[in-house]
Write a structure and sequence with these properties.
- The chain is an alpha+beta fold and 130 residues long.
- The protein has one domain.
- The chain is 16% helix and 15% strand.
- The chain contains 3 helices and 5 strands, in the order βββααββα.
- It has a 3-stranded antiparallel sheet, with no helix packed on it. The chain has a two-stranded antiparallel sheet with strand order 4-5.
- It is globular and about 45 Å long.
- The relative contact order is 0.19.
- The structure holds zinc ion.
- Zinc ion binds next to helix 1.
């Protein structure tokens, strides 16, 4: 599969949570799984609730990295920067996702953000289509 990396804005990433609140939290949507039929790491999403990332990722009870599927978080690297920002608060032993990933894109005194070229076809993402 071809993934577009480092676009500034991208399709929305959603979070898949077990109804019993146990088990790893997976990601879906975005470029990786636009149909949201599976998680980004390939796990089936039956028996899971798909939630807007804004309602989960920044909240204190979801900040510990051990609650999240590491393979899905690794796939988040290929999503738009605006979507990565939502996961900034998740804490790893080496620092938060914001410190480890997002800050490299946005801090001063860093090389220019290298963006991949835009897709060949211009595709307008209108309201409700994402
Ligand atoms: Zn996963």
């Amino acid at each position: 599969m071809n993934y577009v990396k480092n676009e500034l804005t991208g399709p929305r990433v959603f979070v898949a949570v077990n109804d019993n609140k146990k088990g790893k939290i997976h990601l879906t949507g975005g470029y990786a799984k636009p149909k949201m039929n599976k998680s980004m790491c390939g796990t089936k999403l039956n028996m899971k609730t798909i939630v807007d990332a804004r309602d989960i990722a920044p909240r204190e009870e979801y900040r510990h990295a051990h609650r999240w599927c590491k393979r899905c978080l690794a796939m988040l690297d290929f999503e738009g920067l605006d979507q990565k920002v939502l996961f900034s608060a998740i804490e790893f032993s080496a620092g938060t996702y914001g410190q480890l990933v997002v800050a490299h894109h946005i801090s001063r005194n860093k090389p220019k953000l290298k963006l991949t070229s835009a897709p060949d076809k211009s595709q307008w993402r209108t309201v409700g289509s994402d």
